[in-house]
């Protein structure tokens, strides 16, 4: 370990779509050790996507035990802990025992989309209150589904034991065994029941979706005392709970309004910081990314549901378990006579189109390598579409900063630079969520350098890519018009 023996250490738990992780950082952002437990969501033919709640919780506990074993006597230097999670996952639980009464339902799940359609006339009002478009990816419709369909949830409600809400609130309560559950604003906001202006559950939204307020945990800031994390005889204050994408923005220090932040994982996200007041666009998300007792910070956000999820979908279409990073890198750098276009509605078409039932399709022919390039380019095209929408409100960014698993692909980074005509900076550590959590839980220190040299991708003239983007836009608009 590189840190001084007297330096404080910070534990960061990162619960993502494919794995749970525990990482330890020192006060200058240098990673000291790492533990990982893979996770596989259960998927049904009806499009339901969920995790067994106890298995997901156990994966975090296993990571925690592993990291403490790695630290040995150095565990005494741990000062505080953070938890970052997938933002729109929800769960129901027994307030008395803490036991889960439902599976953890993934943000990708759209099981109650038909029920949600009845609220289309209120969509503009919902967006004004929450900063979110009406969408089955957010928690409200899934919480309502649990109330209507799960006998254990219904019985607990009758007996006054039921609580429900963001997965993060349940995980934090279980990991601290505090006996009390609290919801942070970032994860609470993704239920579509939380008001951006009031920073609390909104009575109008609760009535609209039929969610009794008494079933929801109280809302507190992201930076807050959530209880004592208990493991291996150690008690450690949990002082930050946040969403994964929100925490990732802080991986390399304070937010910069001249930077567009891209994170490419199971989904892809592009964020433009807008300061301490929300900024609204009816085709984008207005998102709170951090609330302290003193102030809140907001971004304009565009989402692409089918990033890593789209590659998983493609692998399944070809009867494969996965597409390897080596394959992706090789195919991105190969020369092909033609590459098809991919209209990417995997897990639902998100910003700025918002079509939950959009059918993914290829335009043109190609074998698996060409189809893979088309899928990866569709992610780049969707990100560029969101950046162009943001340009209505913000000056052009001086650079794009890219993190997440797919950012390791040079071909993706270069295409983003070429298409957007902005330099793309890829920091040396692409796993940004835990590092951003460490920055926040360490008190946002002034000295938070990148752990090594990153890589810059400068824009180049790429006429074929620009032509494919224009063709993709025409094909997307035609498909949407027919839909």
Describe, in short, the structure shown.
The chain is of the alpha+beta class and 483 residues long. It has helices at residues 53-71, 113-116, 123-130, 139-149, 151-158, 167-176, 185-189, 203-209, 244-248, 308-317, 325-332, 368-390, 410-420, 432-441, 463-482, and strands at residues 9-15, 19-26, 31-38, 42-43, 49-51, 78-85, 90-94, 104-105, 162-166, 194-195, 200-201, 228-231, 234-243, 259-264, 268-275, 285-291, 296-304, 341-343, 361-363, 399-403, 424-426, 455-457.
Descriptive account of the structure:
33% of the residues lie in helices and 23% in strands. The protein has 483 residues and is an alpha+beta fold. The strands form six sheets. Strands 16-17-15-14-20-21-22 form a seven-stranded mixed beta sheet. The chain has a six-stranded mixed beta sheet with strand order 3-2-1-6-13-12, with helices on both faces. Strand 20 (399-403), helix 13 (410-420) and strand 21 (424-426) form a beta-alpha-beta unit.
């Amino acid at each position: 370990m590189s840190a001084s023996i007297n330096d404080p250490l910070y534990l960061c738990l990162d619960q993502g779509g494919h794995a749970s992780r525990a990482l330890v950082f020192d006060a200058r952002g240098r990673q000291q050790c790492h533990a990982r437990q893979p996770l596989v969501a259960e998927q049904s033919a009806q499009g339901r996507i969920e995790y067994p709640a106890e298995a997901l919780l156990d994966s975090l506990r296993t990571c925690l035990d592993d990291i403490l074993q790695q630290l040995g006597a150095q565990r005494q230097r741990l000062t505080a802990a953070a938890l970052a999670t997938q933002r729109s996952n929800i769960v129901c639980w027994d307030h008395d025992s803490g036991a889960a009464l439902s599976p953890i339902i993934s943000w990708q799940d759209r099981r109650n989309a038909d029920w949600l359609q009845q609220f289309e006339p209120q969509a503009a009002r919902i967006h004004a209150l929450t900063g979110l478009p009406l969408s089955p990816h957010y928690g409200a419709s899934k919480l309502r589904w649990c109330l209507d369909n799960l006998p254990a949830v219904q019985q607990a409600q009758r007996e006054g034991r039921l609580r429900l809400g963001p997965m993060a609130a349940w995980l934090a309560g279980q990991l601290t065994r505090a006996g009390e559950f609290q919801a942070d604003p970032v994860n609470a906001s993704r239920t579509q029941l939380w008001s951006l202006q009031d920073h609390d559950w909104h009575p109008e939204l609760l009535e609209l979706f039929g969610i009794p307020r008494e079933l929801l945990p109280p809302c507190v800031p992201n930076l807050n005392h959530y209880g004592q994390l208990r493991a291996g005889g150690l008690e450690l204050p949990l002082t930050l709970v946040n969403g994964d994408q929100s925490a990732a923005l802080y991986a390399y220090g304070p937010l910069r309004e001249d930077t567009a932040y891209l994170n490419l994982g199971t989904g892809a996200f592009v964020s433009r910081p807008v300061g301490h007041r929300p900024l609204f666009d009816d085709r984008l998300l207005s998102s709170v990314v951090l609330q302290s007792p003193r102030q809140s910070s907001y971004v304009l956000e565009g989402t692409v549901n089918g990033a890593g999820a789209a590659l998983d979908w493609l692998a399944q279409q070809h009867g494969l378990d996965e597409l390897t990073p080596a394959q992706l890198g090789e195919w991105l750098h190969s020369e092909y006579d033609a590459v098809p276009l991919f209209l990417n509605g995997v897990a639902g078409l998100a910003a700025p189109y918002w079509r939950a039932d959009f059918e993914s399709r290829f335009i043109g022919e190609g074998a698996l390598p060409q189809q893979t390039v088309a899928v990866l380019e569709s992610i780049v095209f969707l990100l560029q579409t969101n950046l162009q929408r943001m340009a209505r409100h913000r000056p052009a960014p001086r650079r794009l900063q890219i993190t997440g698993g797919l950012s390791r692909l040079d071909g993706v980074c270069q295409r983003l630079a070429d298409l957007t005509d902005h330099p793309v900076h890829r920091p040396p550590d692409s796993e940004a969520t835990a590092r951003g959590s460490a920055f926040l839980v360490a008190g946002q220190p002034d000295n938070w350098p990148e752990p090594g040299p990153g890589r810059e991708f400068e824009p180049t003239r790429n006429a074929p890519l620009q032509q494919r983007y224009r063709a993709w836009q025409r094909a997307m608009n035609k498909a949407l018009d027919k839909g």
